[in-house]
Amino acid sequence: MSVQGTALVDYADAVKRYDPVLGIEVHVELGTRTKMFDAAEASFGAEPNSQTTPVSLGLPGALPVVNGKAVEYAIRIGLALNCEIAEYCRFARKNYFYPDVPKNFQTSQYDEPIAYDGWVDVELEDGTVFRVEIERAHMEEDAGKNTHVGGATGRIHGAEYSLVDYNRAGIPLVEIVTRPIEGAGERAPEVARAYVQTLRDIFRALDVSEARMERGNVRADVNVSLRPTPESPLGTRTETKNVNSFRSVERAVRYEISRQAAVLDAGATVVQETRHFHEDTGSTSSGRVKSDAEDYRYFPEPDLVPLTPSREWVEEIRASLPELPAARRRRLQGEWGYADAEMRDVVNAGALDLIEATVAGGASPAAARKWWMGELARYAKQTETALTEVAITPAQIAQLQSLVDSGRINDKLARQVLEGVLAGEGDPEQVVTARGLEIVSDDGALLAAVDEALAAQPDVVEKVRAGNQGPVGAIIGAVMKATKGQADAKRVRELVLERIGS
Amino acid sequence: MTDVTRLSAAELAEALRKRELSSVDATRAHLDRIAAVEESVHAFLHVSGDDALATAQDVDARRAAGEEVHPLAGVPIAVKDVIVTKGMPSTAGSKILEGWIPPYDATLVERIRAAGLPILGKTNMDEFAMGSSTEHSAYGNTHNPWDLDRIPGGSGGGSAAAVAAYEAPLAIGTDTGGSIRQPGAVTGTVGVKPTYGSVSRYGLIALASSLDQAGPVTRTVLDSALLHELIGGHDPRDSTSIADPLPNLVESARRGATGDLSGVRVGVVTELQGEGYQPGVLARFQESLALLEKAGAELVEVSCPHFPYALAAYYLILPAEASSNLAKFDGMRFGLRVEPEDGPVTAERVMAATRGAGFGDEVKRRIILGTYALSAGYYDAYYGSAQKVRTLIQRDFAGAFAQADVLVSPTAPTTAFKLGEKLDDPLAMYLNDVATIPANLAGVPGMSVPNGLSDDGLPVGFQILAPAKADDRLYRVGAALEGALQAQWGGPLLAQAPELV
After folding, report:
1. β-strand partners of A224
2. From the candidates B90, B133, B179, B224, which is the catalytic residue?
3. Which of A69, B4, B95, B96 has the maximum number of C-beta atoms within 10 A of its C-beta?
4. B422 is an active site residue
5. CA nearest to B283, candidates B455, B408, B401, B428
6. pLDDT in tens for each of the 502 residues of chain A?
7. Which residue does chain A place closest to B324, by CA atoms?
8. What is the nearest CA distance from B378 to chain A, expressed in angstroms?
9. Size of the A and B interface in Cβ pairs below 8 Å
10. What is the topology classification, in CATH, of domain B4-307+391-496?
């Protein structure tokens, strides 16, 4: 295999000597009820080819009609990404033959995108903010899904036959294209990942898509090129297609930087091509060579009329935009009084929503953070589950904290209650009752234990009487032990001192 | 009673309404006529006798029960094979769709069925409506009922011949550059291309999406108005469909039939006469102008200076759109599927083999032309320039309609030529549409009315054009001319056609 293949330069070394430039295309499937140009249902997971009409099958005579909801969603995305919204734009036909494209052209937008010239701020894990410029966001329809049967790898090569499911054909997509992302340097892989993650969070906040990476609702094509210095002209880029997780985005960029550095070190030139990312090895491999630049023969779609979103409508949509993730984080941090580092940890741990809900349930921000970032984060790590999957709700945590705050349990008991909730024994209240974990502050019950402890340690009693309060803790400890930690420690101390003093 | 196949649709409808005749009898009479003349005319690709009779029976039953039915209920109709019909073959004249049975009806077919018109069958056409003679059908020629050795025009030669040969009183055609009007002219029938967007294209197998328009093919102007009103009007499934209601077409036709055209300014287009037009065609045109003047119309000479470029622009825009519209015929989902004779059976190779075997030469010629015109580096010079010419032609129309209510010209430069005569000369064939193409490029409506026989004894047509959404003007002027001409002839022109049996 040639130098284009698998030779790699150590990453740290590569980014010392080369300046990486990225370009990222993110496709998001919109969560509309019906398809982009068609009344067929657009839901996920139905029987193959059951969600089709003459339009989405591309039958002779069928005609497209634009889904107004999809246009609204596209405008929402454009506005959230600080884009201009076109006053007039058309759909275009992108012509190419492939069985998963029923008409053998994809209805897309070419040089007249619905949204253009925007930007989005991306926050890296250490809090650094990196601005990514958006060139355009345009609407298009998804293709069907091919399944290659009989081959070893599920790929088309070596397959006996292929099946096509057109349920996905015609699902509305918005494709968001960045301008060249420059200046990320060694952090390029991290920026790429954070960018895609930021978009995913925005899609969810806007409620335009379920944005589930594992279902392919969000897919990224990652372009990477290297140049000797930031002043040099852009190098030849490769495009790694359909990278379907945040981690893969990061790995794919990292791998391409190492690979292209090796190509350039060897004095060769990077081939402009499409590449595939392999989850198992974290590597990319050559796909289609793009040097004979495919000619899609774009032309305005004559079956559709131009879109002319009125300014009133655009402003109406702008006014109805929900709070976006970055603004929400800023607001919550202010309300909760978290330090920057605390807030970052919370965000990185995916605990933001959990804490917000816990606070909404009545807990203090500090207490909510203590539970989710402490006890529960440890538990999640031990049991290898995501924090959001831990079997306890923010409402239960809030209830637990209120039991502590009202003095009915102490911290130590609270941990036992938590254990009970996680074990499926019910709400904190139920666990307290069932396990009998409530603090005992009833004097009658406590006095017996106090007297017993005093009788058992006469030497301590003497010392205290002589004016040395230090050893009183030993008595209190004995009482707490005798009551299995359920005694109200403060009351015990008062009773002990009363008894000794009397 | 007279032969019911000789009745116009309006007359037939009246007889049905009065229950002097049953739809079953009317339908059977047309099916009998089809059986008698098809061997010589070959207007149909598919005859759906049982379906038609079932519809007729149903309409008769509803009428007998006193139910309110559509005025055209029970009047049989033929449909061009480029329109999809549920459960009935729809080949568009191509081998590539042989055996395909559509699972849905075109919107206009839904309307026809809902109104209770028995569908007699599907008519022959040039493959994917590419042609002016119906010789490019993959299923054999249609013959002109006036002279069986001659072409019936195209692409809708089947619909025109079926109506001219009394096989159907009504037919549906489609007109992308003249495919309703030119066959109308050469067969002595009436054909109307409605305003672009006024008849739904949903279910019309697209040739060129921005030009295609379905419309009526009949023997009288009034019949066209009746059918036009039935199939026209807004359809939410066609994004290019006009939301406004149709103008009152039947009323305009009746008004025109009174023979009074006073106050109507008729613009004679300088660029659509003269060189290339047969003397007989021009002579009949002048006579018709005189009749219009006599009816009270004011004749004005108008110039449309960019019309000479229409043909060239059309033959870039049409192939460009067609190359994309016809991409879906690939053997993957419906219709013909051909596997390569040797080598691996990959999707790409099956597509290539299917398209190679399934498309005829004219279709391939235009796909290649269109693919080239849209290619990177050529787009601006070809498709881009053609679109600019299109805009100039639209401006020509706007200027002309500022001076005249309707524009007129001969429909086609010549009468029907002999079968095979122009088959090897595509450019000569394309010239047949020189007068009809501008209307498609501008989206305006046009009508062809038979206006006599040329020196060779073959029919010629008179074209009337109106501004977009003013289709009613076609009917007023067309009906007035028709009335004046028939008064001269002492009956319809078709009465002069030779008997076929």
Report:
1. A22, A238
2. B179
3. B96
4. no
5. B455
6. 344 556 899 999 999 999 999 999 999 999 999 999 999 998 888 999 999 999 999 999 999 999 999 999 999 999 999 999 999 999 999 999 999 999 999 999 999 999 999 999 999 988 899 999 999 999 999 999 998 888 766 667 778 888 999 999 999 999 999 999 999 999 999 999 999 999 999 999 999 999 999 888 999 999 999 999 999 999 999 999 989 899 999 999 999 999 999 999 999 999 999 999 998 999 999 886 654 567 999 999 999 999 999 999 999 999 999 999 999 999 999 999 999 999 999 988 889 999 999 999 999 999 999 999 999 999 999 999 999 899 999 999 999 999 999 888 888 889 989 999 999 999 999 998 888 887 776 777 788 888 888 888 888 888 888 888 778 888 888 888 888 778 888 888 888 888 887 4
7. A95
8. 10
9. 102
10. Amidase signature (AS) enzymes (3.90.1300)
ipTM score:
0.95
Determine, for residues A302 and B374 on separate chains, whether the beta-carbon distance falls below 8 Å: no
Virtual CA dihedral for A149, A152, A157, A163, nearest 10 degrees? 10
CB-nearest partner of A99 from B83, B102, B332? B332
Phi and psi, residue A468, nearest 5°: -95, 105
Per DSSP, the residues of A457-471 read -HHHHHHHHTT--TT
Alpha-carbon distance values, A69 to A35, B166, B241 (Å): 10, 50, 20
Alpha-carbon gap, residue B9 to B76, rounded angstroms: 8
Active-site choice (B8, B22, B48, B155): B155
The minimum CA-CA distance between B419 and chain A, rounded to whole Å, is: 30
pTM: 0.89
Contact A303 B374 (CB under 8 A): no
Do the chains contact at B239 and A57, CB–CB below 8 Å? no
Active site residue B323: no
Going from N- to C-terminal start, the domains of chain B cover 4-307+391-496
Asked if the Cβ–Cβ distance from A60 to B324 is below 8 Å, we say no
Domains in chain A, CATH or no CATH each: 11-317 (no CATH), 323-435 (no CATH), 443-501 (1.10.10.410)
- Residue B80 among the catalytic residues: yes
- Give which of A68, A65, A69 is closest to A54, Cα–Cα: A65
